[in-house]
Amino acid sequence: MNEDRSDILQAAAAAHPAFAGTAQATPRDLLALAAWVGEGLTEVDLPLLQRQIGFLAYLVERAAEGSQDPRRRLAALRQVLAEEEGLSGAGDPSDEPANSFLNRVLEQRQGLPIALAVIYLAVAERLHWPLAGVDYPAHFLLRYRESSELLVIDPLQGGELIPYERCVELAAPLFKDLPTRELSLYLRIRLEDIVTPERLVTRMLRNLEGSFAARRDLAALRNVVQKLLLVDPTADRELCTLAQVHHLLGDHRQAVACLRGYLERQPEGPDRRRAEQMVHRWSELLDEE
Question: How far apart, in Å, are the Cα atoms of 269 and each of 206, 236, 247?
Fold first, then answer.
């Protein structure tokens, strides 16, 4: 790893120590990593969150009455989390950052599908139930893995069990030019694509990246992009984004370091010339300071 990139990652870890420590742990704790997404952006109370998940797991286990049947277990999740606790999809505006922060989601009883999914997954994990996240094109879904049939639930719709035909309907508007047979094959593959904690949290962070970019909240945007780099230190796109954010915040030294880190890994990348021009321009600004 080159020196510039190493310095950037050290700065990110120093700014977000709880998130960095969780991101570096093996194996990664999904609940903790998703909770610390809010570090520096909102109040994070991980012990409280863990106790809440433990209590929800107790209620779900009681509702399932010891059943080993996958459908009965999923029904118990829906009964407790959606019907009794009232967890539901966030209304407008859907890009409100609070809808991604787990402590706030449990407090408000609403959130983005992926934040709701983390809660479902954390409860299932406590019970040792094989529920997994599916990075689906329309929005995040959940799948019960150890079953002879395809069992998919939609956290946005109160944990409703949805048939394959409904899965296709959800994604079809995004693939209007794709023939029906090819679309069906592609979506089958996507439903088999079980996400890791890193990919799930990356998707959460990208939601926040878009939200803060739309609000032009540069400090929050820097926070999120730094965390994306902590999840995947090899990500080059994030270095370019972080460079722009540092520049807009007036930190030209860090902006130049980010672009140099990018150019070190992508000497022939599509943005090479533009990156070199910006390094030259921002270095001149440094000389003037």
Answer: 22, 10, 21
Residue range(s) in the chain whose domain bears CATH number 3.10.620: 29-192
Q: Where in the chain is the domain with CATH 1.25.40.10?
A: 218-288
Digitized pLDDT (tens) for each residue of the chain, 289 residues in all: 567 788 899 999 999 999 999 999 988 999 999 999 999 999 999 999 999 999 999 999 999 999 999 999 999 999 999 999 999 987 655 679 999 999 999 999 999 999 999 999 999 999 999 999 998 887 889 999 988 888 999 998 899 999 988 988 888 898 988 888 898 889 988 888 889 999 999 999 999 999 999 999 999 999 999 999 999 988 888 998 999 999 999 998 899 888 888 888 877 777 788 888 888 888 877 766 6
Contact of 139 with 171, CB cutoff 8 Å? no
Catalogue the E-assigned strands of 1-48. Answer: none
CATH classification (class only), 29-192: alpha beta
Say if CB 15 and CB 40 are below 8 A apart. Answer: yes
> Tell me, which fold does domain 218-288 have in CATH?
1.25.40
